[in-house]
Design a protein that fits this description.
Helices cover about 85% and strands about 0% of the residues. The protein contains 3 helices and no strands. About 0% of the residues are buried. It has 2 domains: about 1-35; about 35-80. By secondary structure, the protein is mostly helical.
Length: about 80
């Protein structure tokens, strides 16, 4: 009976520290999963440059439309 009484606080302490350790471990694992590799960073940079080029092209096309058809935005401009 004395052994069981001694085990209860030990189990409680292990459970508290075990839970805390598990939370820390899972947070660390989540951070590592969100970490991007060098290839992924390079690909993201390349896609960002392409998006900038496409944005410039759209701006040029809109300027051409503004010159050719002055009121085209009133019926066709659908801002996201």
């Amino acid at each position: 009976m004395l052994v069981i009484e001694a085990l209860i606080p030990i189990v409680a302490i292990v459970a508290v520290f075990g839970t805390a350790w598990l939370k820390i471990y899972l947070k660390h694992k989540e951070k590592m999963m969100n970490f991007m590799s060098e290839d992924q960073v390079a690909e993201l940079d390349q896609m960002s440059r392409r998006a900038d080029i496409l944005d410039q092209r759209v701006a040029v096309l809109e300027n051409i439309l503004d010159d050719e058809i002055p009121n085209w935005r009133e019926s066709h401009d659908k801002t996201i």
